[in-house]
Amino acid sequence: MEANSFYSNQYYSEAADLYNQLINQGYGHTNLYYNLGNAYYQLGDLGNAIWAYEKGLELRPRDSDLKFNLSVANARIVDRVRVPEPFFLLKWYGALKQSFSPSQWLMTISSVLLGAAMLSAFARFFKNRLSQILMTASSAGLVMVILFSAVFADIYFDISDIETGVVVAQEGRVYTAPSKSSNLLFVIHEGTKAEISSRQYPWIEIELIDGKKGWLDSNSLRPL
């Protein structure tokens, strides 16, 4: 691939341009986002590097290389948005949600459901103890399907109703209203992740994980 050749020869800007072209053409793949993130990181473009790693993790949440590179990039973020440590069950549930991509969750649910149906069917050919074991296993599988389906529904809600993005401008000025004549609330820097609450071109209303809200120029943030 020509983009990889550019990267190997340290033409990082050209490599990033070609990786973006491929993504815009519909060739979004984990490795493509990984390489794009690396090219941006070599260019010192921290915001776009974090954006690319985050996009890759959406496709493959457990990819260790993407996780490591994202952690390295996140360590360089200027803004340290601190929130209280969540209750351990909520923390565990959050990790569970992120353990698979939506398509992987669907595949898991389908596989468990199929397995439960097969165990139930096999149980009809046996009697007594073995039949009871198979039916118990089938029932356990159905319970897992219900629980996993609830997790998937929660993930789907997050994806469909909550839009997030990464600040790609070196510095973004956040105002009380969609106008530079309004009061300046705070300043955020590249790499910071934010939720997009609403849009009023060319402005977007954002919310940080610590609850801070305000209006930011839409060119300062790249939607995930």
Question: Low-confidence segments, ≥5 residues, pLDDT <50?
Answer: none
Oligomer: single chain
* First-residue to last-residue Cα separation: 25 Å
| Total E-strand runs | 7
Molecular shape: globular
Number of helices: 8
Spell out the blueprint of helices and strands.
Elements: H1 2-8, H2 12-24, H3 30-42, H4 46-59, H5 64-74, H6 88-97, H7 102-123, H8 128-161, E1 163-167, E2 171-175, E3 184-189, E4 193-200, E5 203-207, E6 213-217, E7 221-223
Sum up the structure in keywords:
alpha+beta, Serine Threonine Protein Phosphatase 5, Tetratricopeptide repeat, SH3 type barrels, 3 domains, five-stranded antiparallel β-sheet, 8 helices, globular
Question: Mind explaining what this structure looks like?
Answer:
The chain is an alpha+beta fold and 224 residues long. It has 3 domains: 2-74, Serine Threonine Protein Phosphatase 5, Tetratricopeptide repeat; 88-161; 163-223, SH3 type barrels. Helices cover 55% and strands 17% of the residues. The protein is built from 8 helices and 7 strands. It has helices spanning 2-8, 12-24, 30-42, 46-59, 64-74, 88-97, 102-123, 128-161, and strands at residues 163-167, 171-175, 184-189, 193-200, 203-207, 213-217, 221-223. The strands form 2 sheets. It has a 5-stranded antiparallel beta sheet. Strands 2-3 form a two-stranded antiparallel sheet. A hairpin with a 2-residue loop joins β4 (193-200) and β5 (203-207). α4 runs antiparallel to α5 (64-74). The longest helix is centred in the middle third of the chain and has 34 residues, at 128-161. The protein starts with a helix and ends with a strand. The mean pLDDT is 87.
